[in-house]
């Protein structure tokens, strides 16, 4: 084999039409991801791109949108309990999961019902 997959460049999450304000609030303001500019040729499609560490998170508009209830991205988080508090204060339900011994993590949903995993990492 002469090729090697090096890393994930980006993950795309689908969202319904008109998602822009909620995307900026949830992924930008609440989760603290920095919005980055989409290439001009792609802007007409709607949605947003955010920087998430060295990778990108793309929020793509899908006309026949259905939330992803099983498939999900997992975000590595410093101070997971502070994130839990920020989410619950905004009415976002958080579901703990202790099925991985030694890991501190929970699941939540974005404003459109997509499953998200948050797992704590140490500094």
Number of helices: 2
What fraction strand?
25-35%
Structural class: alpha/beta
Mean pLDDT: 94
User: How many beta strands in the DSSP annotation?
Assistant: 8
Computed over alpha carbons, the radius of gyration is 15 Å
* Anisotropy-based shape: globular
What can be said about the biggest beta sheet? 4 strands, mixed
The stretches of 5 or more residues where confidence is low (pLDDT under 50) are none
Strands in their spatial order, largest beta sheet? 1-4-3-2
H and E order: EHEEEEHEEE
How widely separated are the two ends? 36 Å
Share in helix: 10-25%
Quick overview of this protein structure:
By secondary structure, the protein is of the alpha/beta class.
Account of the protein in words:
The chain is α/β, with parallel strands linked by helices and 123 residues long. It is 17% helix and 32% strand. It has two helices and eight strands, in the order βαββββαβββ. The chain has helices at residues 20-30, 80-89; strands spanning 10-15, 34-36, 48-52, 55-61, 74-77, 94-96, 105-109, 115-120. Strands 1-4-3-2 form a four-stranded mixed β-sheet, covered by helices on one side. It has a four-stranded mixed β-sheet with strand order 5-8-7-6, with helices on one face. The mean pLDDT is 94.
């Amino acid at each position: 084999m002469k090729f090697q997959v090096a890393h994930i460049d980006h993950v795309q999450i689908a969202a319904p039409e008109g998602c822009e304000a909620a995307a900026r609030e949830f992924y930008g303001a609440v989760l603290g991801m920095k919005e980055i500019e989409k290439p001009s040729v792609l802007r007409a499609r709607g949605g947003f791109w955010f920087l998430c560490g060295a990778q990108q998170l793309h929020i793509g508009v899908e006309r026949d949108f259905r939330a992803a209830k099983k498939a999900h991205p997992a975000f590595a988080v410093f101070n997971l309990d502070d994130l839990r508090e920020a989410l619950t204060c905004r009415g976002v339900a958080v579901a703990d999961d202790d099925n991985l011994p030694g890991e501190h993590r929970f699941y939540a949903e974005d404003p459109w019902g997509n499953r998200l995993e948050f797992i704590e990492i140490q500094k």
